[in-house]
Design brief:
Length: about 525
């Protein structure tokens, strides 16, 4: 079954996605809450890469383990490949707080304390992460941070911690939004940049509210070192791309690469996590990792897909009896394609350049990201994929054709105003993309000055977020309501101004790459503020 890429076709509405993404309820895919702005701490502009001790060591964490792992990452190619965080999980502290209510690192496990361990890790050019829990106790029974958020955040900052994994055990029934927002504010109050990883197991639809709270959020339950667990987490995470982006990422849990799956399955997990722009946090024994394991973890071509600055999560564009095709647009115009065989026997999986959003070229270049081999194609993308395996290509070539009728084209970039992935969800921020005539790029100017996209019950208006009139206000789609924040004036100098704000429709940062976002900004006369309605 072939289904065109979401941004290029209206076929991929929530009803289709609900069929394609096992385990993700249709309600998730048609969520009406607008995607929130990302947490503004300047961290995780690409998904974090690092190590966490839990999957391989459980409670057997120690200063010597963390230091030896940091040494190994420094010398075995992981740090050079982009891994930065060395993260301590549960069981690092004593069973009670001190007389002043402070957390106490276990002196037997961490004789130099967390501060001494952090100093060692920092000396290698790496960063240190730590674990705590948003309840009265951690999952292993050590003191939790509920009611102690400011005090504990201050300790983490004083120790030089760079990353906090915040778990969800023993939470007394207090809502996750309350508990995680309280710790977010406590971390911000320290003045130290600390990446905030929300580990609430995908509960309370965290993807709908996580962006302004944390830098990543678990979308799933805990992963285990088996193919079925990996597959379940993939299914739960793959349909949530609309909620993620730079600074705020869906997290299907840590990598089990090297922990007992086959090399083929390990490679699939790494490929799929990269395609989904997920954090790549290794959970294996780095100090004794095999050459195969390190070869997977340090594949720079696959890592580059995960770390692509456009920050788009790859989407499932076709699925037929466990034969999956995912496509992820990249900042330079390439598309990363993953052909994933969920089944146990080999099968041929096929798609095309058109299906992944490519057009305008007589020939495209396919680069196999695992073998490094390159080959030309006139449009067919196909491979025989082993059972439980993934073939991953980077597809280059193609260009936009003529600007189609109904498009609002950005003069400076030569691209069209586009609703990402063809989403109709109110609050979806619009972007620019290669012009292709898709329904998510066809705009109609109404007599009242509105710009509408789609039709029928899915009609949406171009909208200035929340009636805001300040520089940087995001421009989104919303249900048409006649408000002044949905009225636009096309001016003789090529600018488009919001009637309510008087600000110009602007491509953020004068971006020219696919996926650059639109916003409101004071009018400057720049080419990134010049538009043409075809």
């Amino acid at each position: 079954m072939q289904i065109r890429r979401l941004t290029r076709s209206l076929l991929t509405k929530a009803a289709v996605l609900a069929l394609l993404v096992p385990g993700v309820p249709a309600a998730v895919l048609t969520a009406t809450a607008p995607p929130a702005a990302a947490l503004g701490n300047g961290l995780a502009t690409t998904p974090p890469l690092g190590f966490n001790d839990w999957n391989a060591y459980g409670c057997n964490v120690s200063e010597s383990l963390i230091k030896s792992t940091a040494d190994a990452m420094h010398s075995n190619g992981m740090q050079a490949a982009g891994y930065r965080y060395v993260n301590i999980d549960d069981c690092w502290m004593t069973s009670t707080r001190d007389a002043n209510g402070n957390l106490v690192p276990d002196p037997a496990k961490f004789p130099d304390g967390i501060a001494g361990t952090a100093a060692y890790v920092h000396g290698l050019g790496l960063k240190l992460g730590i674990y705590e829990d948003g309840g009265t106790a951690t999952c292993a029974g050590y003191p939790g941070s509920l009611g102690h958020e400011r005090q504990d955040a201050a300790s983490f900052a004083a120790w030089g911690v760079d990353y906090l994994k915040y778990d969800n055990c023993n939470n007394t029934g207090t809502s996750a939004t309350t508990r995680y927002t309280t710790m977010r504010d406590a971390l911000a109050a320290t003045g130290r940049p600390i990446l905030f990883s929300l580990c609430n197991w995908g509960q309370e639809s965290v993807w709908t509210w996580g962006a302004p709270v944390g830098n990543s959020w678990r979308t799933t339950g805990d992963i285990s070192a088996g193919y079925s667990s990996m597959l379940a987490n993939f299914h739960q995470n793959v349909g949530l791309g609309a909620f993620a982006g730079p600074g705020h990422w869906n997290d299907p849990d840590m990598l089990e690469v090297g922990n007992g799956m086959s090399t083929t399955e390990d490679r699939s997990e790494f490929s799929l996590w990269a395609e989904m722009a997920a954090p790549l946090i290794s959970g294996t024994t780095i100090t004794t990792a095999s050459a195969d394991t390190l070869g997977i973890l340090t594949n720079r071509s696959v890592i580059a897909v995960d770390q692509d600055p456009l920050g788009k999560q790859g989407q499932l564009i076709a699925s037929n009896s466990g034969l999956d095709v995912l496509a992820k647009p990249l900042a330079n115009g390439d598309v990363a394609v993953a052909l994933f065989n969920e089944n146990s026997t080999a099968a041929t999986i096929s798609t095309s350049a058109a299906a992944i959003g490519k057009s305008g070229a007589a020939s495209y270049t396919l680069t196999d990201l695992w073998s490094g081999a390159t080959s030309p194609t006139t449009g067919a993308i196909s491979a025989t994929v082993p059972g439980h395996g993934t073939v991953m290509y980077r597809v280059a070539g193609g260009s936009s054709g003529q600007i189609p009728s109904g498009a609002v084209s950005a003069i400076g970039a030569g691209k069209c105003l586009d609703v990402p992935w063809g989403w109709t969800t109110p609050g979806t921020q619009v972007e620019i993309w290669d012009c292709n005539g898709g329904g998510n790029q066809v705009w109609t100017r109404t007599p009242s000055g509105q710009l509408t996209v789609y039709s029928g019950g899915d009609t949406r208006c171009l909208d200035a977020y929340d009636n805001q009139t300040t520089a940087g206000t995001k421009v989104e789609i919303w249900g048409c309501n006649g408000g002044a924040n949905q009225q636009w004036r096309f001016n003789a100098d090529g600018t488009v101004t919001g009637v309510q704000s008087g600000l110009c429709l602007d491509v953020t940062g004068a971006g020219t790459v696919d996926g650059a976002l639109a916003e409101l900004w004071p009018c400057t006369g720049g080419s990134n503020q010049q538009w043409q309605l075809s």
